[in-house]
Amino acid sequence: MACLGSRLAIATIAVSFALVLPAFAQFAPPPAKPAAPKATAPSPRAASCHNGASFDRFLVDVKQQAVAAGVSQRTIAEASPYLVYDQGIVNRDRGQRVFGQLFTEFAGRMAAPYRMQNGQQHIKQYAAAFARAEKEYGVPPAVIAAFWGLESDFGANMGNLPTLKSLVSLAYDCRRSEMFVHETIAALKIIDRGDLHPDEMIGSWAGELGQTQFLPVHYVNYAVDYDGDGRRDLLHSGADVIGSTANYIANGLKWRRGEPWLEEIKVPPNLPWEKTDLTVREPRSTWAQLGVTYPDGRPLPNDNLAASVLLPMGRFGPAFMAYPNFAAYTEWNNSLIYSTTAGYLATRIAGAPPMRKPTTPVAQLPFNELKELQQLLVRAGFNVGKVDGVLGQQSRAAVKAMQIKYGLPADSWPTAELLARMRGGTAQAQPQTAVR
User: Where would I find the Peptidoglycan binding-like domain in this sequence (predicted)?
Assistant: First the structure.
């Protein structure tokens, strides 16, 4: 969902995943139902993890697993015309392009005022369903609406590819075969229990479905019938989308009822930067003693509510207090830019003011230098994931460790000075004062 976080294990800070959405109308007409897709020749290399079995032989085994999991033969027959291999889907998966982007740029576009206003309008339009979801699951309407807006612009952009074809193609490919076999069987269960017909299952190339982009396993486990029509329809029913998303956030992502998720803060120039990390939680009273305040200077509550200081662009960029509920965002999508944007958009829908802009531009290493820094971090013994010039959470952790080693402000933001130190150079960056 955009659960492309831990669920799809997509690049840690990938932000290209078709999220550059225009300001769609509130509801676009549903895509025309496509004819059953025609099979294409499977890729010989993909069969290596299936003991050389052809796609057709592999598919027989998947169908047998589905039947063993309780899927009826009727559903297997109904879905079979759509269970075809598409090398284009595999190529798309293997060729995902990721790029680094400043949080302020991404959030400025994705949490734009029109999307905030659209979220507020949907909360009014579906007031009864949102109230019911908050009562039953403890998830605030703004949290649901923010994911709804980011994932599909409230149903306007859910994808246009046959889901079963996408799933079974990725299941045959060796990169994440086991995961997508389970997702294929889950999609068949969705059909079997009468929620969707095969020709209705249209979504993203990665097999996600509906207005908040559920993978089929999550659809099976968390979708609920909130409009009372006997179906769990996350493509067409706004009420079902609201109830199901709340159920997933509450029970799948372990939302803590009545607690905040993200708040903008102001940090002092002498904050112990090594403590600014999602893995470090301190009571708000401790952060208050260290000089952290709200943006307008108001003090933080003097209580024991645990929180982390999150600096998505280092000590000179925006600063947030991330509460335990923020873990639901990083579980939904482990890209820090996406998860922080989703949390921030939810605060805006709930009535928070826009975040303050940095007083001076925040310097960002060019792509090639960031990639070089990752290579140097690998040589130093750190696991940064893929060396791709993208600042994912593993890279951020490694940057912080090296900043501590060199006695630099450990705010996890890569700088020219850190790169020079790791190259063995003597260049020193001019000291800056964090004026916020």
Answer: 369-422
The answer to whether the CB of 290 falls within 8 A of the CB of 358 is no
Is-contact 336 320, C-beta < 8 A? no
**DSSP-derived secondary structure for 382-416:** ---SS-SS---HHHHHHHHHHHHHHT---SS---H
Helix, strand, coil shares, percent, the chain, to 5? 45, 5, 50
Q: Which residues have C-beta within 8 Å of that of residue 143, sequence separation ≥ 6?
A: 249, 255, 261, 346
Q: For the chain, what is the total number of helices (H) and then of strands (E)?
A: 17, 6
Q: What is the pLDDT of residues 137-159, one digit of tens each?
A: 999 999 999 999 999 999 999 99
Nearest CA among 40, 49, 43, 53 for reference residue 162:
40
Are 118 and 80 in contact by the 8 Å Cβ rule? The answer is no
CA distance 331 to 117: 26
Q: Are 58 and 169 in contact (CB under 8 A)?
A: no
Dist. CA 113–CA 101, nearest whole Å: 20
CA atoms within 13 A on the CB side of 335: 26
So what's the pLDDT on residue 268? 97
pLDDT score at 287: 98
Distances (CA, A) of 110 to 157, 171, 172: 14, 31, 34
Give the percent of the chain with pLDDT over 70: 85
For residue 376, which of 330, 425, 340 has the smallest C-alpha distance?
425
Q: Which of 221-230, 321-330, 336-345, 426-435 has the lowest mean pLDDT?
A: 426-435
Residue 333 has pLDDT above 90, yes or no: yes
**Coil, strand or helix at 308:** strand
Burial environment of residue 102 by CB neighbours within 10 A (0 to 12, 13 to 18, 19 or more): middle
What pLDDT sits at residue 36? 56
Give the Cα separation of 216 and 185 in Å (integer).
8
Q: What is the pLDDT of residues 189-232, one digit of tens each?
A: 999 999 999 999 999 999 999 999 999 999 999 999 999 999 99
